[in-house]
Amino acid sequence: MGLGVDNVLEIEVMQVGQDENGEPSLFWAMRGGGGGVWGVISSMTIRAHAVPDGGLSHVLMIKTGTFCPDSSPFGYGWLKAMWRRFSAWTLMVNHKVSTQASFFIDTSNYTMGGLCAVTWRFNFEYFYAHAEPDYRLFRDRLKAVLAPTTVLERNFNSVFEYVLSIPADKFLLAVNNPLPAPQQQPSDAATGSQNSVIVSRDAMKTKFAATRMEVLDICVASLLNPDPTSPDPAGYRCGFHFLYTSLTGNLGSPRPDDTAISPGFRSAVMMWNARTLSTQQSVDILYGIGQNSYFSESSYVMHNWTSRYWGQALYDQLLTIKKAHDPGDHFWCHHYVADNPHDTYGDPLSAAANLASILIKSAACFCNCLMFPI
């Protein structure tokens, strides 16, 4: 679970052990401790937030361009300058903004038209908790960064009203096997599927723009010399990226200290999800701008995963709680609290063989039902 855990007020959970320190430690661990590995959750109480005066402004800015290597308008050179502007803009984002930015690369026409036929599309979608004139100032600053070809603005009285307006195919994405090929074991050459890095304010200021271009350079290199380990049938390493800037490192954001969210995640300004890199490319380039990754969106193959998800000190606390509440290790997943810390690659092909014995063992357990009070 990500930063949404800040709004979890109550959890009802069935679990198999009892912590001598009582329920609060388990409640702390479940909010940020990763995955459903603490017990069977039967209900949760989530904090609701009042809609601000003026409602919620929803804005979608779209910018398109090409990978033309010369000085063509909105080509590769323009992208390089844009990422520097984007870095400076990100450092000004405040707690009133909730964003989902996505960067897509279309290589379908490359073989016919070369790099100038490779196109990119930057969709920057966000909500702003309405407060004039802050909203207009924020919007216009982003326009100056992106020079968008399309700007769509709507105002909603509630999030529910927005949900009803979403097209049915809005989040329809092609799914690629994160491994190089079916029935092939994970390795450093495998595509990590959702390689993520948590970007601090300092890294955003000093490293982000250059690293973005390094990752795009990998795409260009794979176009010129296809990579046989890529899950793309053409051997390209392009695809798409998500750039989430709705983090508590933003200006004015509250930073609760009563959850198991890592300090690096808590103070960051971006979670960058690069779905095109191999594990080794992530280690060499992506992870160079941040020591942490997001548990729920990350590479299947990860070295030093305990530190990247939580930091070693925080992980040791989580491990103590896990052993107290689930001593038989009945609730598990890959790279969860209590997994083998030296197991970088996992063994997905043998997981099914272990499932039957785990189900039998779990069925024999007596489950306690705990309710964490608000």
Question: Stretches where pLDDT falls below 50 for ≥5 residues?
Answer: 177-183, 349-353, 356-374
Strand content: 15-25%
Q: What is the fold named in CATH at topology level of the largest domain?
A: Vanillyl-alcohol Oxidase, Chain A, domain 3
Reading side by side through the largest sheet, how are the strands ordered? 6-3-5-4-8-9-7
Mind summarizing the main beta sheet? 7 strands, antiparallel
Q: Could you tell me how far the N terminus lies from the C terminus, measured between alpha carbons in angstroms? A: 19 Å
Total strands: the figure is: 10
Shape: globular
Oligomer class: single chain
Average pLDDT level: 85
CATH class of the largest domain: Alpha Beta
CATH architecture annotation of the largest domain: 3-Layer(aba) Sandwich
User: Order of helices and strands, N to C?
Assistant: EHEEHEHEHEHEHHEHEHHHHE
The Cα radius of gyration reads: 22 Å
Helix content: 25-40%
Protein name: Berberine/berberine-like domain-containing protein
GO molecular function: flavin adenine dinucleotide binding; oxidoreductase activity
Keywords: Oxidoreductase
InterPro entries: BBE (IPR012951), FAD-bd_PCMH-like_sf (IPR036318), FAD-bd_PCMH_sub2 (IPR016169), FAD-linked_Oxidoreductases_BP (IPR050432)
Structure explained in plain terms:
By secondary structure, the chain is α+β, with helices and mostly antiparallel strands. It folds into two domains: 3-48 and 310-371, no CATH class; 56-167 and 177-307, Vanillyl-alcohol Oxidase, Chain A, domain 3. 30% of the residues lie in helices and 20% in strands. It has twelve helices and ten strands. The protein has helices at 23-30, 76-90, 110-113, 134-146, 159-165, 201-206, 208-224, 263-266, 279-284, 305-309, 312-325, 351-363; strands at 8-15, 40-46, 56-66, 97-106, 119-129, 150-156, 195-199, 240-244, 270-274, 368-371. A seven-stranded antiparallel β-sheet has the order 6-3-5-4-8-9-7. Strands 2-1-10 form a three-stranded antiparallel β-sheet, with no helix packed on it. α2 (76-90) packs antiparallel against α4 and α2 packs antiparallel against α7. The longest helix is centred in the middle third of the chain and has 17 residues, at 208-224. The radius of gyration is 22 Å and the shape is globular. The two termini are 19 Å apart. Mean pLDDT is 85; it is low at 177-183, 349-353 and 356-374. GO terms for molecular function: flavin adenine dinucleotide binding; oxidoreductase activity. It comes from Vermiconidia calcicola. Residues 302-335 form the Berberine/berberine-like domain. Belongs to the oxygen-dependent FAD-linked oxidoreductase family.
